[in-house]
Amino acid sequence: MGEQAKVYERTENGTVTHVSIREGLAEINHAMLDGKREVRTMSSITRTDFAIEYKDGRKVRLVRVDATAEQPAETDERPDAWTVASHRTLLHRFTQADEDGRALCNKSFRPYRYGNGYDFKTKAEQQADKYAHLYTFCPRCEAK
């Protein structure tokens, strides 16, 4: 049995919507940090349940729940672009497949430029390559 994806059930003044974990945490962090002057009260009821009351009268409740069948989970919009960076036997996943791309595990990592340019491949292409046994995938990039 696979683990179900999680989303936040966002209730604002009685209107219920589902938002991704990323969007829910962004609203929670904004209410605690940058937008705290706009918030009257904020409480963490449990680790997965938050109540925010704004000064303009809005009341927002965020509860982490399992994603239902009709609500799709968060989609991965990053490209599947893998190549080497500074350590030439460790393959990293990059935000974009060009010289401006940054590794997902460490934003200071840039792709290594070979004499004929950059060598970006998908994970499946890297695994099917005849030199695949020489490389390992960065575990931190795979987790993101």
Structural features, described:
There is one protein chain. With 144 residues, the chain is an alpha+beta fold. Helix content is 16%, strand content 31%. It has three helices and eight strands. The chain has helices at 21-32, 123-128, 139-143, and strands spanning 6-12, 15-19, 39-46, 49-54, 59-66, 81-84, 90-94, 136-137. Strands 2-1-5-4-3 form a five-stranded antiparallel sheet, with helices on one face. A three-stranded mixed sheet has the order 6-7-8. Strand 3 (39-46) and strand 4 form a beta hairpin. The longest helix is centred in the first third of the chain and has 12 residues, at 21-32. It is elongated and about 60 Å long. 14% of the residues are buried. The model has no long low-confidence stretch (mean pLDDT 81).
